């Protein structure tokens, strides 16, 4: 479906999450055609606040939520979680429901590192399984020449995509829970088509952290995502203690 042929009605919110450098702000910039979502080209993480970027589609508007990613070089994972949790609970209390969530990951990452797994696990805990049908796991970087031009590199990337999708600990459980996984194709049209597809099957998502923090008034550390980060920190500390043993 091309530009301007969208059938979107009303307002919709799509939250864009994923580790630092996965391409969240680039994607939002590509969709909104504005320079409002700061894209970082340096080695430092770029986005350190939650921000909203609005695009008109059909008779409606889509609000893309840019977020800082875990493993941010300017903020700790706890600070990132705080920002996400604060924004999500404020939105929930204001009656805003999220229509879809994109979780981004670079297909150029050759391994699912400990940090990537931790980020994905915290993300899943933040959403909770009831929100899995609203998740689109989106891999980026398919346009880089080594992947788009070299058949072997592309086949290897496709193999990584399949492995991510087939491994429950990675994306398998999101797919089993009704979510989707896809590769981000180059160009603005592809990004808009993806946004439209998400909106067409839009949900009224209530994320686990929204319930935990507003209905249950849990402290951040008591939420599923908070516990995941704390557990990971405890494992790191135990490993560090082995240095002195
Ligand atoms: N070739 C290519 N480069 C990309 C793609 N997505 C992002 N990049 C590049 O990766 C770098 C980081 O992109 P950002 O969009 O700032 O990543 P981010 O997820 O917003 O990162 P944080 O704000 O730090 O959480 C930039 O240099 C982008 O140009 C993609 O699909 N293809
Ligand atoms: Mg960013």
UniProtKB/TrEMBL annotation:
GO terms for molecular function: GTP binding. Coiled coil: none annotated. It comes from the Eukaryota. Gene3D superfamilies: P-loop containing nucleotide triphosphate hydrolases. Residues 14-71 form the G domain. It holds the Pfam family MMR_HSR1. This is G domain-containing protein. The lineage of its organism: Eukaryota, Fungi, Dikarya, Ascomycota, Pezizomycotina.
């Amino acid at each position: 479906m091309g530009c301007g042929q969208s059938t979107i009605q009303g307002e919709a919110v799509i939250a864009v999450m994923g580790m630092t450098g996965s391409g969240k702000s680039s994607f939002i910039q590509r969709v909104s055609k504005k320079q409002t979502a700061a894209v970082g080209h340096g080695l430092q993480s770029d986005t350190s606040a939650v921000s909203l970027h609005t695009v008109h589609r059909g008779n409606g508007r889509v609000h893309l939520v840019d977020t800082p990613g875990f493993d941010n070089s300017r903020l700790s994972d706890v600070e990132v979680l705080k920002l996400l949790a604060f924004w999500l609970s404020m939105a929930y209390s204001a009656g805003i429901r999220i229509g879809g969530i994109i979780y981004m990951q670079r297909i150029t990452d050759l391994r699912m590192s400990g940090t990537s797994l931790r980020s994905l696990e915290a993300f899943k805990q933040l959403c909770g399984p009831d929100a899995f049908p609203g998740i689109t796991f989106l891999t980026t970087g398919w346009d880089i020449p080594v992947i788009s031009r070299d058949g072997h590199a592309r086949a290897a990337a496709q193999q990584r995509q399949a492995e991510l999708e087939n491994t429950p600990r990675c994306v398998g459980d999101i797919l089993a829970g009704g979510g989707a996984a896809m590769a981000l194709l180059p160009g603005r049209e592809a990004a808009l088509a993806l946004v439209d597809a998400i909106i067409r099957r839009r949900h009224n998502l209530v994320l686990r952290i929204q319930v935990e923090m507003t209905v249950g008034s849990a402290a951040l550390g008591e939420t599923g995502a908070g516990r995941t980060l704390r557990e990971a920190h405890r494992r790191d500390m135990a490993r560090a203690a082995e240095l002195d043993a």
